[in-house]
Amino acid sequence: ARPAPLAGRGPAEEKRVSLDFDRTRTRDALAELAKAAGWSIAFEERPHGKVDIRFTDAPADEALLAILRKHDLVARRSGNVVVVKGAAERAGAVAEDEHDERSDGRVGFGRSIRVEEGETVREAVSFGGDVEVDGTVLEDAVCFGGKLVLGPKAVVHGNVVSFGGGLEIAPGATVRGERVSFGLDLGLGGLNIARNVKKAEPETPWILKKASSLASTLVRHALLFVLGLLLLVFVPGRVRVVSRELQRTPGRCAAVGAVGFIALLPLTILLAVTVVGLVALPFLWLAVPVALLLGFTALALFIGARFPSRNPRRSQVLALALGVAVIFAVDLVPVLSALALFVLGMIVFGAVLRTRFGSGPQNDANFAPSP
Question: CA nearest 320: which of 340, 304, 306, 308?
């Protein structure tokens, strides 16, 4: 027997809609109808064909029935949730579709994308832009080089992943898979590459924000000192080579660092569109914070050695501590700190690139910046 086009029940009083579809893909037409009616809609399989129909002040359920009958589809409804699938008689008889598999997803190159409330897409991916989700994503939501934001009504059935940006999940959002953010914090040279998820929270009192910010800044710079100390222990020659380059050619280092930062986005996009590149992409974003850690360690060592001292052979540990303290003080300056640390990050990044991660000539291995 032929199944009924629509099973289940909705509210007693249906919302009325006025829509005009002119050779619109069936899936897009159903998604637009769901948005106008205030429904959530999902697809168990991809509907094919196109819709050419106009509704004027029609009950939303009758409009849905008309589209289902026209394209031999069936749907189950529970309140404001509609699940669409192909009718039993046409199972296995998949029609040709002029759009490729990616057309069900939403992919942006160098631009931000948004999934509106009531919309359902297979995947949401942006290279070089933000991703905002207020609707439903059936698979993964991924953002390279931007922020991934889930609204309070967002539903993601797969993973949510952000490379090089933040991940903000509002209360009420649903994520079935993993929540991962590989952040790049240029304020301290990208040292906080980690799995961190920022959730939207109620407004915090000003004094608590300041205290929390100060504590966070202190912890980051303490981490810089500890990791820098490890570099001095295990790769002292590389630290000295980078420090020497900072002293000799700061202008050239800044220029190379600026080009390097600018090249990160197109290089990320280039790697992301190939299978081999996808394997190499995590190593690229791991190399950037490692380079900045090496660069800021060399900078702190150079700054610390500039302080006057009665002992010309000042301990490098003390020099590193003094340099980190100066960088910490710069980070506390309102407004200007972000710009100053970004410029410093650009300079040290360029120094690391120019010396190939400190692997340049080490013929003066006993080099230490002159105080």
Answer: 304
- DSSP class per residue in 86-150: E-GGGTT-PPP-SS-GGGGSEEEESS-EEE-TT-EES-EEEESS-EEESSEESS-EEEESS-EEE
How does DSSP classify residue 272? H
Do residues 124 and 109 lie in contact, with contact meaning Cβ atoms separated by under 8 Å? no
- Please name the amino acid found at residue 220: R
Please tell me whether residues 219 and 330 are part of one structural domain: yes
DSSP 1-22: -PPPSEEEE--SSPPEEEEEEE
Residues 6+ apart with CB under 8 A from 233: none
Domain span at 30:
6-90
Task: Name which of 151, 157, 153 is nearest 131 in CA terms.
Answer: 151
Total tally of structural domains belonging to the chain: 3
* 81 inside domain: yes
Q: Is the pLDDT of residue 36 over 50?
A: yes
189, 308, 168: which is closest to 242 by C-alpha?
Answer: 189
Contact 72, 87 (CB under 8 A): yes
How confident is the model over 85-137, as pLDDT tens digits? 765 444 333 333 333 333 367 887 767 888 988 888 888 888 777 889 998 88
Q: Which residues contact 23 (CB under 8 A, 6 or more apart)?
A: 50, 51, 52
Question: If you average pLDDT over residues 274-281, what whole number do you get?
Answer: 78
| Contact assessment for residue 19 and residue 55, using Cβ atoms and an 8 Å cutoff | yes
Whether the predicted pLDDT of 195 surpasses 60: no
Q: What's the token pair of residue 99?
A: 């759009």
Task: Dump pLDDT digits (tens) for 327-342.
Answer: 888 888 877 888 888 8
Domain membership flag for residue 189: no
Q: 216: closest CA among 322, 349, 334, 332?
A: 332
